[in-house]
Amino acid sequence: LTLLLKATLLRLASGSYHPFHNGFYYNQVMNDNDDGQDKVDSFNGARLVVETSKDPVYSYSGANVTLPCRYRYEPDQGPKRKMRIKWSKLRDDYTKEQDVMVTVIGKTSMAFGDFKGRAHMLQGSRHEASLVISDVRLKDDGKYRCEVIDGLEDESDVVDLRLQGMVFPYQPPRGQYRLNFHEAERVCQDQGAILANFHQLFQAWSEGLDWCNAGWLADGTVQYPIRLPRKPCGGVHLAPGIRSYGPRHRRLHRFDAFCFSSMLKGEVFYLDRPAGMTLEEAKQSCQDAGAEIARVGQLYSAWKFLGLDRCNAGWLADGSVRYPIVTPRANCGPAEPGVRSFGFPSKGRFGVFCYRER
């Protein structure tokens, strides 16, 4: 036992072990061993306070956004030598974290995963811990934890980043209830979108979305929004709201999808010929105009945020034919605004909606 104890003490003294702080391993890049100043100070009775925005921070796809976070000591302790700041992205239920960035104040920063090259700490005044994310992506939407670590002291707070966007239901060409969870993820991505999460679906419902077909959400649950209760949609006696089937088997069960698309960096425009176009001719026409055939998510975003209103049907990238109506009028479909669909015609000649980056 004595030999084992001595061997353990020698191993610890040699520095060959991996230091562990507050649930996160800091590798050699994040540590400073040259001056011995990173030893933990004894707790002196001061309280570390971390504060973020209590209101959601709103942004949109392609933008730059700052997630505010500041820290302080009560009472103030003056400049600290080795403060570490860690940002992580949380699941909605707080059960799992994705590392975003770790910084040693005044020293080294390291971003992780999809945030490499896009995340950095805001350079500002003392006690600043805000995170800047550039070229915001659809999947950046969610909750972020700002954690400040000073030796053994560790405090954190959470800020909610929400993308301005819209939810649209999606069925593939094969028809209703044909997608398992993984296929639903892919079809949303193919249409310039991602699977919606619950708060995005709830926001869409509060703005008027009423859809009787159940669809996958990003957490693997299957739900659908009802504004006007009716017999085929859960019954006439249930209150309006989000109906839920709960979690479903991601490979075996099949439903539609609810996709989420954000604001556009480019523009959607309509092209036509007197005799119309086939799908392949439509794709070529967009290329000739220095653009590409628009995806479904891009058409919905142009309708929602750019006021695109066109009573002429046009091809989209998935082979569907649709048209966006902001101001309902005679011969343009129902009396409510929306994106009308002709489905996936195997024949026919139509115009085309194209998308071009600005």
Automatic annotation (TrEMBL):
GO cellular component: extracellular space; perineuronal net; synapse
Signal peptide: 1-15
CDD domains attached to this UniProt entry: Ig_LP_like, Link_domain_HAPLN_module_1, Link_domain_HAPLN_module_2
Disulfide bond among keywords: yes
Domain called Ig-like: residue spans: 46-159
Subcellular location: Secreted, Extracellular space, Extracellular matrix
Disulphides: C212-C233, C311-C332
Recorded GO MF terms: hyaluronic acid binding
UniProt-listed InterPro entries: C-type_lectin-like/link_sf, CTDL_fold, Hyaluronan_bind_Proteoglycan, Ig-like_dom, Ig-like_dom_sf, Ig-like_fold, Ig_sub, Ig_V-set
Keywords: Disulfide bond, Extracellular matrix, Hyaluronic acid, Immunoglobulin domain, Repeat, Secreted, Signal
Family listed: Belongs to the HAPLN family.
Protein's UniProt name: HPLN3 protein
